[in-house]
Design a protein that fits this description.
This protein has about 300 residues and is α+β, with helices and mostly antiparallel strands. About 50% of the residues lie in helices and about 15% in strands.
């Protein structure tokens, strides 16, 4: 690799083409928009100090840097999750282009809370092996170099992770138009506390998860079952502090909406839809996770 253009621009010519993919890798590893951006910035600073004439494949080299930085951060993140108040959900991604990746494996385009929660249940090494190989398209030899394990071990790590991730995916894809229609109907039914409409929209074994992080009021445990969720939403509608402002949005690539409640509370609601019904409702109310979200005008 020559050092002409790369040396003259501090390495940006070899770094920038990979920035979005590196950000996508970091976000899927960490579940945090801010942390992913910090990791990519740290990788850039390290890249500037590297003798780039010794690097044959910048893409693989940068993936190793980002993976190692993420594994370091996951150690402290896991300790923080143990004391986190209530259910944990990933920070909602509002702009898929920021962390989206080129078409390939399904997970390369998936930024949903369902995928992120499936990844959260993996060990850090399983997550790294799966993401580097299935999403970043790295060889198992490259994965091994990043996480310090033999290629054969990395293959097994990725296989176990893939099974967990595939089990968490909806069976049927939903079109953008259908997703928007269902999100609008759910929003209106939840605001009105319309039990009949909510029952039609929710799957029998639907899951409801709300993340307030101890900083905003939220249900402290996940709720499973259509009837229980309908009762909860009907009760919340009766106790509503007043009219809310909303707009429909794609959240992590899934249908949903952003709400600014009358008391000033901002939240995102993302819906997992399978075979025409809602199988999961993921609500984020923790303000620390919503700093990048634009409130409804």
């Amino acid at each position: 690799m020559s050092d002409g253009p790369a040396a003259s621009d501090g390495g940006a010519a070899d770094f920038e083409p990979h920035r979005r993919r590196l950000a996508g890798l970091a976000y899927r590893m960490l579940g945090s928009v801010a942390d992913a951006q910090d990791v990519v910035q740290d990788a850039w600073l390290r890249w500037r100090t590297v003798d780039r004439t010794t690097v044959d494949d910048p893409r693989a080299f940068l993936a190793r840097i980002v993976t190692r930085l993420c594994l370091d951060r996951l150690k402290s993140a896991r300790a923080q999750r143990e004391i986190y108040v209530g259910p944990w959900l990933p920070e909602p991604v509002m702009d898929e282009g920021t962390f989206g990746m080129e078409p390939g494996a399904e997970a390369a385009l998936d930024l949903s809370a369902a995928l992120m929660l499936a990844l959260e249940r993996l060990s850090p090494l399983e997550r790294a092996a799966f993401l580097m190989h299935d999403v970043f398209d790295a060889s198992f030899e490259e994965v091994g170099a990043a996480i310090g394990r033999p290629a054969a071990t990395c293959r097994q790590l990725a296989l176990r992770a893939r099974r967990h991730v595939q089990a968490a995916r909806p069976r049927f894809a939903v079109s953008a138009d259908e997703g928007e229609r269902i999100a609008a109907a759910f929003r209106d039914a939840a605001a009105a506390g319309d039990a009949t409409a909510l029952s039609r929209l929710l799957a029998e074994q639907a899951l409801f998860v709300a993340d307030g992080g101890g900083k905003r009021r939220a249900v402290m445990n996940p709720i499973r079952g259509r009837d229980r969720i309908v009762r909860l939403l009907a009760g919340l509608a009766r106790k509503s502090p007043g009219p809310a402002r909303t707009y429909l949005a794609r959240i992590g690539g899934r249908p949903g909406y952003v709400t600014l409640q009358a008391d000033g509370t901002l939240q995102t609601t993302a819906l997992e839809i399978d075979d025409g019904v809602i199988v999961a409702v993921h609500i984020v109310r923790n303000p620390d996770k919503l700093r990048h979200v634009t409130p409804p005008a």
